[in-house]
C-alpha cells in the first residue's frame, strides 16, 4: 500500500478528508495545494507508518524508495537538490496527528544544511548572514528535537555571546557572529552526544523522521491523549516540506492568523506577524509581533506598523486566501504563513479554536451570510460551552490576587464578603450584603445559606460533592475542595498560607478557574438576547425533546423560564421544609409520636406550603409543574444543635431530653435506604394529604386569580411495588376531588412516579397501570443500580476513573450500558402496559449532553435539569435530533 503522499503546485495526492491517514496538517496542506494556494511542495508519510514504527521500531518495506521518489519530485518542483553543495534544497520535518495536539510533538526546520550546503545557500540567497542564521537555528532545533539536548544549552551560549559582544537583539548578530556560534553549537552537540553533528543530509532526514514518529510515544504526548480521549493507536504523520524563508531580510516575514476574531467571533481578520523571522518566533515571544490590519492596529493603539501598511500587496494576497479558505472550509480557520522576498506561502490551516461567545457569533453570522445552514450552526457549538455565557464572568482585564485554588465546581464568578456559616450568610444577605459562603464542606442544612450566597467555597470535596452539585443546580459559582484553606467557623475566619480572611473581608471566586481571590474583581454580565436568542431559537425548532427544569424556589423557577424551560420536571418539596419560617414546625411534626401530634404542626405548615405552590404556579403559568411529595429520610430534618433542640422542645411542649430521645429513635443506620419516599406516605399519610391539599388549593387560587390553568403533576417518590403507588394514587385522587368539590372547580392533573429503584424499572408494567407518567430519577437509580452512595463516591471514584474501571463518573453522565438498560426497560414495559404513559427524566443527567442523546434514543418526552443547564439541554436535545 501507498505510504507517502505528495503535495504541491502540480499534483497533490491527499485531501482534507484523509486526516486519519495523513494527519490534520498533511491533509490540509494537500487540500490547500489543490485549491491552488501557494503551498511549498512536500510529502506526507502516513500515520500507518507510525503504527508500524511504534510496534517494530523499524519501517515497512519500500518506504525508503517512496520517500526518495517523493523527495525527487520536490527537488524538481523547487529546482534545487537535497544535499547539493551549490544549490541545496532545505526541508522542514513536521509532525501532524489526526487530532490536534498543540505543542505536544515537534518540528525541525532548515534540514539539509551542513558546513558545505550553508555556503551554497549563502551564495544562492546572496545573503551570508541569513544562511548562517538558518544553520544555527537548524543545529538548535535538531539538537533539541532529534538529539534530545536541552535547548537551554544553546540558548545560554547565545546569551553569553550576546553579552560578551554587547548585543541586545538576535538581529544584531552578523554572519561572522553566527559562524562563531555555530562552532560552539557543534561543540555542544559533540559534548552531549559524543558524536559530531551529522553532516549527511540523508542521515539528518531519517533521524528527524525517526524522532517525529518516536515523539508519538513520549510521556507528554501519551498523557495529553489520555486527558483528551485521543486513541493511542492513531499515530502521527510526518510532513516533509520544502523550506521557505521569512528570515531573508525586511521583505520577509512569518505570521499566524485567524480568519475571524477567535475571542469575540467578530468577522475581522485577526493575526500577528514578525518581519525578518522564521517559524516559531511569533509564538515564542522573542520580539513583539505586529498586527495584520490597520484596523487592529488602531483598535489596540499599537505603535507597530501593520502588514497591511508595510506589505500591502502581500496583505491583499493573504486577504484573498482568507476568503478562499473560509468559503471552502465554511468555518473559521487558523493559519500559518511565511513571506519570502515579497512572495506569500501558506504553511498550515486548521479549524480555529474559539471561545463559546465566538463560536456562537461565528455560527450565527455564517448562517446570515448563507455559508452554513441553521442545523449546521446548531451542530457547531458545544452545549457544555454555553455555560460560559450564562454566568457573570470576571473581567479578563482585571488583576487578581489568587489566595487558594480548588476544583472548578460550578462556573461563573462572584464577589462578596466571606462568611463561615449558612445562618450568617442568610442574615447578611437579607440585610443586602453580597456574601461568599466558605465551609469546610456543606450539607443539606446549609441549603438556605448557599441560596443566600453569591458563591460557595469548600475546603473539602470533589466535583460531585454536595456543595458542587447543589451549587451547579442553583447556578451559584463554586470552588470546591480548596485544600489549603483552614476554615475556623468558631473564630469566623479562614487561613491560607499565613493570610487570614475574616468574616466581612471581601473575596472573589472564579468558579470556572477554581480560584479564590482576595478583594473584589469586577465582573461582566452575560448577554442573553440578540445572537444567543436567535441561535437558541434554531435549536428549539430542531429539537424533539421537551426541556423542563428542576426548581422549587421562585427565583430558580424564574431563571429557568428566562432560560427557556417549558415547565418544572421536578419540584423537591423537602427543600421548602428547610425554610427558616417552618423548620421548627417541621421538626415538631417529625418528633411527634402520633398522628394526632403530627396534625397540629402540619396544619401550621400547610398555608406556607400552599403559598410556595402559588408562587411557582404563577411563574409557570401554562406549563406543567411536577411536584414530588416529601422524599428524604426524616432524620435529615432532625435538630442537631442544642439551640434547635430547645426551640423544638418549647414549640412541642416537650422537654429537651424527650426531644433528644425521640431524635435518637428516629436515627437510621442507612437513611438512604430507610424510612423515606413513598414509605413516609404509607406510614404517615397525613403528610402527603397536607401536601396534596396545598397543591390543589394553590392551583385553584392561581386559576381564580389569573384565569391561567396550571397542570399539577403529583409525583410519588421511591416506589418499588405497584401496590405502593396504587394506595398513594388513591390518596391523591381522594384529596384532589375533596378540594375541587370544596372550591367548586376542576383542575386537570396527573399522578405518576419516579422510577429510581431497579425493581420499579423491572416491574414497570405493573406500576404503569397506576401511573399517568414516569420520571426517571437517575440520581437514585444510579446509586441503587451500582450500590454506590453519591455522597461517599469521592473517596474511590478518582481511582476508578484513573484505572479505567469507569470511563466517566456515572453521576455526571448516565451509565448507558447498565443504568440505561433499566431506563429502556422501564420505558418499554411502562408504555406497553399503559400506552398513554408520559415519560421524562429528572436528575443531574437531564442536563448532560451525552445523557440527553440517550434520552432522545429512548424516545422520552422531556428532560428536566437545573435552571442553568436548561440552555445546554435545549442545544444538546437539538443536536441529538439532527
Ligand atoms: P506546530 O504544529 O508546532 O505549529 P509546525 O510543523 O506547524 O509546528 O511548524 C512550526 C513552525 O515552523 C510554524 O511556524 C511553521 O509555519 C514553520 N514552518 C514549518 N514548515 C515550514 C517550511 N517548510 N518553511 C517555512 N516555515 C515552516
Ligand atoms: Mg503549526
Ligand atoms: Mg430519589
CATH hierarchy: architecture of the largest domain:
Alpha-Beta Barrel
Number of separate strands: 33
CATH fold-level assignment of the largest domain: TIM Barrel
* Ends apart, CA distance between termini: 37 Å
Bound molecules: adenosine-5'-diphosphate, magnesium ion
The number of helical runs is: 36
**Beta-strand share of residues:** 15-25%
| Cα radius of gyration in angstroms | 34 Å
Largest sheet entry: 8 strands, mixed
CATH classification, class level of the largest domain: Alpha Beta
Binding site for substrate: 572, 628, 756, 777-780
Domain PEP-utilising enzyme mobile: 434-514
Binding site for Mg(2+): 756, 780
Organism: Limimonas halophila
Folded structure, characterized:
With 882 residues, this protein is of the alpha/beta class. It has five domains: 1-114 and 200-243, ATP-grasp fold, A domain (Dna Ligase, domain 1, 2-Layer Sandwich), CATH 3.30.1490.20; 128-199, Acyl-CoA Binding Protein (Up-down Bundle), CATH 1.20.80; 253-354, D-amino Acid Aminotransferase, Chain A, domain 1, CATH 3.30.470; 392-524, Glucose Oxidase, domain 1 (3-Layer(bba) Sandwich), CATH 3.50.30.10; 543-881, Phosphoenolpyruvate-binding domains (TIM Barrel). It is 45% helix and 17% strand. The chain contains 36 helices and 33 strands. The strands form seven sheets. It has an eight-stranded mixed beta sheet. Strands 26-27-28-29-30-31-32-33 form an eight-stranded parallel barrel, surrounded by six helices. A five-stranded antiparallel beta sheet has the order 1-2-7-5-6, sandwiched between helices. Helix 35 (849-857) links the parallel strand 32 (838-842) and strand 33 (862-865). It is elongated, with a radius of gyration of 34 Å. The protein binds adenosine-5'-diphosphate and magnesium ion (2 copies). One magnesium ion is lined by residues 336, 348.
Amino acid at each position: 500500500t501507498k505510504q507517502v503522499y505528495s503535495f504541491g503546485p502540480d499534483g497533490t495526492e491527499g485531501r482534507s478528508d484523509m486526516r486519519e491517514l495523513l494527519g490534520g496538517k498533511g491533509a490540509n496542506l494537500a487540500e490547500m495545494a489543490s485549491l491552488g494556494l501557494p503551498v511549498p511542495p512536500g510529502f506526507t508519510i502516513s500515520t500507518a507508518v507510525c503504527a508500524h514504527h511504534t510496534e517494530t521500531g523499524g519501517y515497512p518495506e519500500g518506504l525508503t524508495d517512496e520517500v526518495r521518489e517523493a523527495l525527487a519530485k520536490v527537488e524538481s518542483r523547487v529546482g534545487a537538490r537535497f544535499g547539493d553543495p551549490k544549490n541545496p534544497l532545505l526541508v522542514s520535518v513536521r509532525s501532524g496527528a489526526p487530532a490536534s495536539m498543540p505543542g505536544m510533538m515537534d518540528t525541525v526546520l532548515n534540514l539539509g544544511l551542513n558546513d558545505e550546503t550553508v555556503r551554497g545557500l549563502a551564495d544562492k540567497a546572496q545573503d551570508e548572514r541569513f544562511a548562517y542564521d538558518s544553520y544555527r537555528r537548524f543545529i538548535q532545533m535538531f539538537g533539541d528535537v532529534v538529539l534530545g539536548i536541552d535547548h537551554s544549552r544553546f540558548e545560554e551560549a547565545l546569551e553569553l555571546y550576546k553579552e560578551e559582544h554587547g548585543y541586545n537583539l538576535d538581529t544584531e548578530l552578523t554572519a561572522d557572529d553566527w559562524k562563531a556560534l555555530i562552532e560552539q553549537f557543534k561543540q555542544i552537540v559533540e559534548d552531549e552526544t559524543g558524536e559530531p553533528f551529522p553532516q549527511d543530509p540523508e542521515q539528518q532526514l531519517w533521524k528527524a523522521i525517526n524522532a517525529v514518529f518516536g515523539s508519538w510515544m513520549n510521556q507528554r504526548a501519551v498523557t495529553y491523549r489520555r486527558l483528551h480521549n485521543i486513541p493511542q493507536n492513531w499515530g502521527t504523520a510526518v510532513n516533509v516540506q520544502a523550506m521557505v524563508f521569512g528570515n531573508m531580510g525586511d521583505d520577509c516575514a512569518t505570521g499566524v492568523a485567524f480568519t475571524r476574531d477567535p475571542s469575540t467571533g467578530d468577522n475581522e481578520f485577526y493575526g500577528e506577524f514578525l518581519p525578518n523571522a522564521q517559524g516559531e518566533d511569533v509564538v515564542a515571544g522573542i520580539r513583539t509581533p505586529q498586527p495584520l490590519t490597520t484596523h487592529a492596529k488602531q483598535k489596540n493603539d499599537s505603535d507597530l506598523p501593520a502588514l497591511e501598511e508595510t506589505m500591502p500587496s502581500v496583505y491583499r494576497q493573504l486577504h484573498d486566501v482568507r476568503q478562499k479558505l473560509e468559503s471552502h472550509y465554511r468555518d473559521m480557520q487558523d493559519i500559518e504563513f511565511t513571506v519570502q522576498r515579497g512572495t506569500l506561502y501558506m504553511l498550515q490551516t486548521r479549524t480555529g479554536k474559539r471561545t463559546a461567545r465566538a463560536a456562537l457569533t461565528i455560527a450565527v453570522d455564517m448562517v446570515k451570510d448563507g455559508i452554513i445552514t441553521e442545523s449546521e450552526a446548531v451542530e457547531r457549538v458545544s452545549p457544555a460551552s454555553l455555560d460560559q455565557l450564562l454566568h457573570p464572568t470576571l473581567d479578563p482585564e482585571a488583576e487578581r490576587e489568587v489566595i487558594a485554588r480548588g476544583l472548578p465546581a460550578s462556573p461563573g464568578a462572584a464577589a462578596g464578603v466571606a462568611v463561615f456559616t449558612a445562618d450568617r450568610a442568610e442574615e447578611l444577605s437579607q440585610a443586602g450584603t453580597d456574601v461568599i459562603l466558605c465551609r469546610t464542606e456543606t450539607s443539606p442544612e446549609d441549603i438556605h445559606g448557599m441560596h443566600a450566597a453569591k458563591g460557595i467555597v469548600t475546603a473539602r470535596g470533589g466535583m460531585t460533592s454536595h456543595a458542587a452539585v447543589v451549587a451547579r443546580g442553583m447556578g451559584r459559582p463554586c470552588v470546591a475542595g480548596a485544600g489549603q484553606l483552614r476554615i475556623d467557623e468558631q473564630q469566623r475566619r479562614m487561613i491560607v498560607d499565613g493570610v487570614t480572611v475574616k468574616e466581612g473581608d471581601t473575596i472573589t471566586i472564579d468558579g470556572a478557574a477554581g480560584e479564590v481571590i482576595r478583594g473584589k474583581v469586577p465582573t461582566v454580565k452575560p448577554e442573553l438576547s440578540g445572537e444567543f436568542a436567535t441561535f437558541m431559537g434554531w435549536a428549539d425548532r430542531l429539537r424533539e425533546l421537551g426541556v423542563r427544569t428542576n426548581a422549587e424556589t421562585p427565583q430558580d423557577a424564574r431563571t429557568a423560564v428566562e432560560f427557556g424551560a417549558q415547565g418544572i420536571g421536578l419540584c423537591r418539596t423537602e427543600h421548602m421544609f428547610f425554610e427558616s419560617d417552618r423548620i421548627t414546625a417541621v421538626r415538631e411534626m417529625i418528633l411527634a409520636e402520633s398522628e394526632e401530634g403530627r396534625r397540629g404542626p402540619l396544619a401550621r405548615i400547610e398555608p406556607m406550603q400552599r403559598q410556595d405552590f402559588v408562587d411557582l404556579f404563577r411563574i409557570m403559568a401554562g406549563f406543567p409543574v411536577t411536584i414530588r411529595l416529601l422524599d428524604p429520610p426524616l432524620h435529615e430534618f432532625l435538630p442537631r444543635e442544642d439551640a434547635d433542640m430547645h426551640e423544638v422542645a418549647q414549640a412541642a411542649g416537650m422537654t429537651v431530653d424527650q426531644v433528644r430521645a425521640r431524635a435518637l429513635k428516629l436515627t437510621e443506620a442507612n437513611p438512604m435506604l430507610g424510612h423515606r419516599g413513598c414509605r413516609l406516605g404509607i406510614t404517615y399519610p397525613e403528610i402527603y394529604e397536607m401536601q396534596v391539599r396545598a397543591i390543589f388549593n394553590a392551583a385553584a387560587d392561581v386559576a381564580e386569580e389569573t384565569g391561567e390553568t396550571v397542570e399539577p403533576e403529583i409525583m410519588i417518590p421511591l416506589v418499588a411495588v405497584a401496590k405502593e403507588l396504587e394506595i398513594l394514587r388513591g390518596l391523591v385522587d381522594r384529596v384532589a376531588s375533596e378540594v375541587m368539590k370544596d372550591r367548586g372547580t376542576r383542575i386537570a392533573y396527573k399522578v405518576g412516579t419516579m422510577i429510581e429503584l431497579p425493581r420499579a424499572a423491572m416491574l414497570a408494567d405493573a406500576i404503569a397501570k397506576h401511573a399517568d407518567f414516569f420520571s426517571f430519577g437517575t440520581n437514585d437509580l444510579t446509586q441503587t443500580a451500582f450500590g454506590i452512595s453519591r455522597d461517599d463516591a469521592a473517596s474511590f471514584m478518582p481511582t476508578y476513573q484513573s484505572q479505567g474501571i469507569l470511563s466517566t463518573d456515572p453521576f455526571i453522565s448516565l451509565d448507558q450500558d447498565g443504568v440505561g438498560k433499566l431506563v429502556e426497560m422501564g420505558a418499554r414495559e411502562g408504555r406497553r402496559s399503559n400506552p398513554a404513559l408520559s415519560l421524562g427524566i429528572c436528575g443531574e443527567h437531564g442536563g448532560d449532553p451525552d445523557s440527553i442523546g440517550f434520552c432522545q434514543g429512548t424516545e422520552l418526552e422531556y428532560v428536566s435539569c437545573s435552571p442553568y443547564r436548561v440552555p445546554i439541554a435545549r442545544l444538546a436535545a437539538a443536536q441529538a435530533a439532527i
